[in-house]
Every structure is written in C-alpha cells, then in structure tokens.
C-alpha cells in the first residue's frame, strides 16, 4: 500500500522569503503525485501534479515541485511567499492502476508580514 | 450542478444516534470519494466509488460506517451508533477518471 509523509505540521515564514514544504511517499509501484491547497474557509483545490515527463512541475500561484524518485520525495517550493499563501497544503499519491488518492497529514503554512 | 454539493453543512447529534451525510457530485463525474478531516489527522481516506461500485472500502474505520452510490450520482455516507471520536469534517470529492478531484465544502459532524 502507498503512504504519504509530510514531515512538518507547521511552517512559519516571513513574507517574501522562500519556502519548502516536504513530502515523502512510499509505494511498491509507480505513482502519480499531487499537491492540494486549502485556503482558510475554502475547499481543497489542486495546486499541481506530477504524472510523467519532466520531474519539475509548475503549478498555480508560483509554486513548483520536484519529483525525486531515488529519494521518493515530492517537495513543494516557492521562491517568495505572499501573505495570501497562508493555507494548509496537502501532498497526495495515487498508484498507476487505481483511482484511490491518499493524502498526507498536511502542512500549515503561515506567512507573517 | 456547478460544484460538489454536500448536505447538511453542519450536523450535531447525540452519541448512539445514526447519521446520514449526502454528496451530490459534479454531473458526469464517474469517480466519487469520501474523506474525513480532523485535527492532526489530515485527510483520512474512507472509500471511493467508480460508478456505483466501490473498489476500495479499506478506509472505513469500522462496520458502523457504510456508503452507497446510486445512479452513478448521489452518494450517502451512513454512520450508525455514532461515537464522539466520529466528530470531524466529512469531505466528498468527485472527478473524471484519472483527473483532478473537486471537493465539496464538507459536513461538520459533532457528536455530543
């Protein structure tokens, strides 16, 4: 079975600073990887996804993530965060041959002025 | 509809009572998912449907939990004999096969 680990439950950062949210997965088969974001009082929405091809994927709002197969990681990065990036971020994994999507426990990004 | 609709938005119940949570997916979406969100637990997978069948029920916490989907559309999650540890936000999502999930706003369940 696949699983997802988000090592940081909370990440505080000042505005305009860079940020990295860590995600590691485990699976015995190939997977697709996703980051979803939940803004305060809103539903979850897709931020970006890795299906195949280039290991560096770009998403909405200036976020990007890099798939590293050898380290089984899919860390999310942004070079300069904004107050409006304050939200809960969830990493998720899905095996090739299934539609079952497993989420991590989430990382709360808090951006301070 | 325009999005995934869940009802009720809030449900307060007494321990031991049964509750039914409803999800109306986006029209045409064949996949439907139920998750539970609670503090410190992230998004816990419960069950998903492809059409009316549920290929994976492994996430249901106990036999008090059940779900069905009819007509490839509306789904109902039923919790029997609710316990306080069932208190959480129950999220429904739908998608086309292999595509991104669209989430509803959730049902906040409080078991007193």
Describe this structure in words.
The complex is a heterodimer of chains A (113) and B (112). Chain A is mostly beta strands. Chain A has a single domain (3-112), classed as Immunoglobulins (Immunoglobulin-like), CATH 2.60.40. Helices cover 0% and strands 54% of the residues of chain A. Chain A is built from no helices and twelve strands. The mean pLDDT of chain A is 92. Chain B is mostly beta strands. Chain B has a single domain, classed as Immunoglobulin-like (Sandwich). Chain B has no helices and eleven strands. In chain B, the strands form two sheets. In chain B, strands 2, 4, 5, 6, 9, 10 and 11 form a seven-stranded mixed sheet that branches. In chain B, strands 1-3-8-7 form a four-stranded antiparallel sheet, with no helix packed on it. Classes of the chains: A mainly beta (113), B mainly beta (112). Chain A binds chain B through residues 6, 9, 34, 36, 43-46, 49, 90, 92, 98-106, and chain B through 4, 31, 33, 35, 40-45, 48, 50, 55-56, 91, 93, 95, 97-98, 100-101, 103-106.
């Amino acid at each position: 079975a696949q699983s997802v680990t988000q090592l940081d439950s909370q990440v505080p950062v000042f505005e305009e600073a860079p940020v990295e949210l860590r995600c590691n997965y485990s699976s015995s088969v190939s997977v697709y990887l996703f980051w979803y974001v939940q803004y305060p009082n809103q539903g979850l929405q897709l931020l970006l996804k890795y299906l195949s091809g280039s290991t560096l994927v770009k998403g909405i709002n200036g976020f990007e993530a890099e798939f590293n197969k050898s380290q089984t990681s899919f860390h999310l990065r942004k070079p300069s965060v904004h107050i409006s990036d304050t939200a809960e971020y969830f990493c998720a994994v899905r095996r090739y041959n299934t539609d079952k999507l497993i989420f991590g426990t989430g990382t709360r990004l808090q951006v301070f002025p | 509809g325009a999005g995934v609709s869940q009802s009720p938005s809030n449900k307060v119940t007494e321990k031991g009572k049964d509750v039914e949570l409803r999800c109306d997916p986006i029209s045409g979406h064949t996949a439907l998912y139920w998750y539970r969100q609670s503090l410190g637990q992230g998004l816990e997978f419960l069950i998903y449907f492809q059409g009316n069948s549920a290929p994976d029920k492994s996430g249901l916490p106990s036999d008090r939990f059940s779900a069905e989907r009819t007509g490839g559309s509306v789904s109902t999650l039923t919790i029997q004999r609710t316990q306080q540890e069932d208190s959480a936000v129950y999220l429904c999502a739908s998608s086309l096969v292999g595509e991104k999930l669209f989430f509803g706003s959730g049902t906040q369940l409080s078991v007193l």
